[in-house]
């Protein structure tokens, strides 16, 4: 899955309507926060099986979950991990 295909997918009307259905199913609440007894509005629809790993499940409602951005970052620690570490180090040094 290359970047162009990925962008095409996220821009597609099919994905947009599928995303809406998932949010509606989950009452527009983060399904991971609910497990911790927190009610957080969901702003992201997360692929349980990553889109890149299994594009055939990209529109499978069972593979989609409404989450908030902070939970989503936990689900994808590979995103911006390096930057965060560096930031934390410099902060620690300042203290
Ligand atoms: Zn959450």
From TrEMBL:
Q: Which residues are in the HNH nuclease domain?
A: 17-73
InterPro entries documented for this protein: HNH, HNH_nuc
Q: Which GO terms describe its cellular component?
A: cytosol
Please list the residue ranges that the record marks as compositionally biased, kind Basic residues: 79-95
Domain of life, per UniProt, equals Bacteria
MF annotations from Gene Ontology: endonuclease activity; hydrolase activity; nucleic acid binding; zinc ion binding
The record's listing under CDD domains reads: HNHc
What does the UniProt keyword field contain? Endonuclease, Hydrolase, Nuclease
The similarity comment for this entry is: Belongs to the HNH nuclease family.
Q: What is this protein called?
A: Putative HNH nuclease YajD
Organism from which the protein derives: Chengkuizengella marina
């Amino acid at each position: 899955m290359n970047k162009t295909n990925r962008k095409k997918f996220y821009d597609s009307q099919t994905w947009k309507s599928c995303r809406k259905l998932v949010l509606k199913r989950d009452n527009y609440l983060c399904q991971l926060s609910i497990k911790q007894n927190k009610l957080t509005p969901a702003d992201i629809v997360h692929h349980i099986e990553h889109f890149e790993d299994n594009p055939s499940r990209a529109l499978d409602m069972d593979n989609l979950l409404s989450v908030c951005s902070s939970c989503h970052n936990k689900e994808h620690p590979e995103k911006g991990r390096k930057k965060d570490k560096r930031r934390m180090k410099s902060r620690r040094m300042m203290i």
